[in-house]
Amino acid sequence: MSNDDDLKLINSCLAGNKGAFEELINKYQRTIFNVALRMVNDYDDAEDISQTVFIKAYNRLDTFKPKYKFFSWLYRMLINESLNFLGKKRQYMQLEQDIISKDMNPEEKYRKNEFDRNVNKAVGELPVDYRVVIVFRHFANLSYKELSYVLDIPIKTVKSRLYTARQILAKIFLDRGIKAYE
Amino acid sequence: MNKERCIELIHSEIDGTITLEEKQELHQHLESDMEMKQLFLQLMNTQAVFNQVTDVEPPLNLKSEILDAIDENRYAPSRRRNLKQFLRESLAIMPAPRYAFSFSVGLVLGAFLIVVLYYGNNNNLNNNYRFGGTILSKEALGRFRITDSLDIDIPDVSGRIEIGQTPTIVQLNLNLTSKKEIEFLIKFNPVNIHLLGFTRRSEGLNKLSSDDGLLKFFHQNTNSYTVIFGQKGQNESHMVFSIFSGGLVYSKKMIIDPLE
After folding, report:
1. Which domains occur in chain A, in start order?
2. In a shared domain, residues B150 and B180
3. Do B151 and B157 contact (CB within 8 A), yes or no?
4. Which of A50-54, A174-178, B71-75, B224-228 has the highest mean pLDDT?
5. C-alpha span between B255 and B238 (Å, rounded)
6. How many interface pairs between A and B have CB atoms less than 8 angstroms apart?
């Protein structure tokens, strides 16, 4: 679905159609929740942040400017909420939820769970400035230009932070033996 | 190929933005540079690891909780119709609607004129802010909408900043509680934003000062402050809120998107 489709939904919502906002939630809730989860590393907190982002977006929908992309606008709120949350809650929290597909056998499930847990833990250990760049690049697939807009930093800084973040993570993965499996 | 160029190309390959020529150039170089080859393999592993991390299903009740929490009548056209109907009906039931309406408009304009005359001469900051009172300026008479908020929660200092906006005004409502004396700074771009006024709920520390693009004051215990800025143009701007207590202890940047 393109940004034009989003604009149609926004206009429909502003005309009083609540169902249009429901479609926007359907479209973005998965990414918003997953990015929030990687930022704060806690399932319940990620849920709270996702809720707050959508509620704020709804309440400010009439201030949205069509020259921007809706998802960029939404992600900007997500960043503000996540950083605000992290400012309040400095300690690192372990992601404990069992998030793996129910179709796997117990051994596969355990291995995959451990793998995800280790990766999330490593990402959670990155300094916030690096974490936010890597999470939005890899879990929201934002381009450098989009990252620059969403984070309000120059593209050059986006690249520099992303490169550093990847190199820090590469070293952590190497030290802990985290490898992509066959 | 120098190191910087090599690193740039490795990341381009990870991002899928590398051209065929660049890819050939990179891999030719990696054959003879073991340090870079090692880095390349590590970074490619990092990318592969990310590709294998499982996406988490959002909670099943997330959508319903959002929908339950939003005001479904916020953009309902019926509400706007009702306001129009109300005005129409109100005028209709008045004995002499035209005169009553003109009288009301005259009253409002008269009040507005008094405010403008009283404050119109005080265009600079020193005369425009008042402590312990309410700021009234011509520009501030609009209807504010809360567009963003920020909670502050650091050791010894807590509080909340709410940003209210009209198309030309940005109003900050600050509630601060601090055990120690702190210095609160607001930095802004003076090209887009200019300071109109400052007020506080109760007496206490102040030492308010302002410079081009900077407002600072001292705070202790609990107090509320209102800062009003004029906003020019349709370009977004930002404000940086910082707290000093024997050094910088808090800093947060907020984007201010102008309302249309």
Report:
1. 1-93 (1.10.1740.10), 104-182 (1.10.10.10)
2. yes
3. no
4. A50-54
5. 4
6. 136
Yes or no, beta carbons of B49 and A26 under 8 Å apart: no
Note whether residue B81 is domain-resident.
no
Could you report the per-residue pLDDT of A107-131, keeping only the tens digit for each?
666 777 788 888 888 998 999 999 9
DSSP label at residue B204: S
B29-70 pLDDT per residue, tens:
999 999 999 999 999 999 999 888 888 888 888 999 899 888
Q: What residues in A contact B162, CB-CB < 8 Å?
A: none
Same domain, B170 and B226: yes
Burial class (CB in 10 A: 0-12, 13-18, 19+), B30: buried
Q: What residues in chain B have per-residue pLDDT under 70?
A: 77-102, 114-144, 204-206
- In a domain, residue B90? The reply is yes
Bridge partners of residue B211, in order along the sequence: B214
Instruction: Count structural domains, chain B.
Output: 3
Angle at B151 between CA B145 and CA B155, to 5 degrees: 160
- For testing the chain B interface, which of A81, A109, A130, A166 should be mutated: the one with the most B CBs within 10 Å? A166
Tell which A residues from 77 to 106 touch B, by Cβ distance under 8 Å. Answer: 80, 83-84, 87-88, 97, 99-101
Domain presence at residue B193 = yes
Same domain flag for B206 and B146: yes
Domain containing B181 — which CATH number?
Answer: 2.60.40.1170
Q: Which of B51, B145, B150 sits opposite A84 (nearest CB)?
A: B150
The candidate with the shortest Cα–Cα distance to A169, out of A115, A97, A111, A121, is A121
**Contact: B43, A120; criterion CB under 8 Å:** no
Q: Residue A37: its chain B contacts at CB < 8 A?
A: 56
> What is the mean pLDDT of the segment spanning A82-92?
68
Instruction: Identify the domain containing residue B221 by its residue range.
Output: 139-256
**CA closest to B250 among chain A residues:** A87
- Contact A49/A74 with Cβ under 8 angstroms? no
